[in-house]
Design brief:
globular
């Protein structure tokens, strides 16, 4: 009984903290802005929000389905229901502590499918690397197509393009130095790390070695296209955003994704990021903020519901273990 209470508290406490942060975010808005946001929520067309959520569910399914290719390559035939449940729970956990979902996902698969934690976690790291590369492709397309707008914005924020280029080059150089040291260095500490992380490395390299790599890559692009479609459909929920062009959608999607990636599920940061990027295109702060809250709230409710349902169903689906 105590163990079950402890499990629920690990979810409920962070969620209550999250609600507190949301409340704090609203206190930073003026009464007039809050009123405009309320009006936007009242006149929103929730048919498009529902459609957006359905597309998000397809993305959940595709992420779980993609995972089986990496696990099969390692010799593990896992149940799809377990894959999907652990993916749903990982989305829920990422709302509490950033990137905790990846750890819980690997831990749950070890519990219910006997997949070693390091190997399962390695396949998840491989997913993140592939996802990051695809996201960089979106960033490249967005920044090239909207270079003038972004450049003027950076100048207004006293950020020089030169400093960004230097920072990026230094980061890339450091990454390649690390890779070279990892591959070729014979230092004792490196050799010990390689031995301890052998399962993790095996999981990471599955994409390159697996037989179904092209199916894996297809689903990787499909997942991100579903994210973009989810965001795009939502713009039609508000009259003020329904007419924006696709290039603005791309930029909103990029900055929204960054907000989610660098925080616990985009809590507070997501509406702020959307309002900031939309303001570059003449969309008022209250409309951008309202749209951000509308998308973030609906997707967060979906993640919470699917995560909690999966958390309850996972032991039931594996009761014979």
């Amino acid at each position: 009984m105590k163990k079950q209470i402890g499990k629920w508290l690990t979810i409920l406490i962070p969620l209550l903290i999250g609600i507190g942060i949301i409340y704090y975010q609203f206190t930073t808005l003026t009464a007039e802005e809050i009123e405009k946001i309320k009006i936007s929520f009242e006149k929103a067309n929730y048919y498009y929000i529902l459609l957006s959520l359905m597309i998000a569910c397809v993305g959940y399914w595709s992420r779980a389905y993609r995972w089986k290719f990496a696990l099969n390559h390692l010799g593990y035939q896992t149940k799809f229901s377990n894959n999907l449940s652990t993916v749903c729970i990982s989305y829920l956990m990422n709302l509490t502590v950033p990137r905790s979902g990846e750890i819980s996902r690997a831990a749950l698969l070890k519990k219910y499918e006997d997949v070693p934690f390091d190997k399962a976690f390695g396949t998840i790291v491989a997913e993140r690397i592939v996802d990051l590369l695809i996201f960089f492709l979106f960033v490249f397309i967005g920044f090239v197509s909207q270079f003038d707008k972004i450049y003027l914005f950076l100048l207004s924020q006293h950020v020089s393009l030169q400093s960004l280029i230097i920072t990026g080059c230094v980061g890339i150089l450091m990454f390649f130095i690390f890779i070279l040291i990892w591959i070729y260095a014979e230092w004792k500490i490196i050799l010990k790390l390689k031995k301890k992380l052998s399962g993790l490395v095996e999981g990471i390299t599955t994409v390159y070695k697996m037989k179904d790599k092209w199916k894996y890559i297809f689903h990787s692009f499909f997942i991100w296209l579903s994210y973009l479609a989810m965001f795009y459909v939502a713009i039609f929920a508000l009259p003020e955003t329904s007419g924006i062009s696709f290039d603005i959608v791309i930029m909103g999607f990029i900055f929204g994704s960054l907000a989610v990636g660098f925080s616990n599920g985009g809590l507070g940061a997501y509406p702020f990021s959307i309002a900031l990027i939309f303001s570059l295109y003449g969309i008022t702060k209250d409309v951008g903020t309202a749209f951000g809250w509308l998308v973030w709230t609906s997707q967060t409710i979906l993640a919470i519901l699917l995560g909690l349902i999966s958390y309850v169903l996972l032991p039931v689906l594996n009761r014979n273990r």
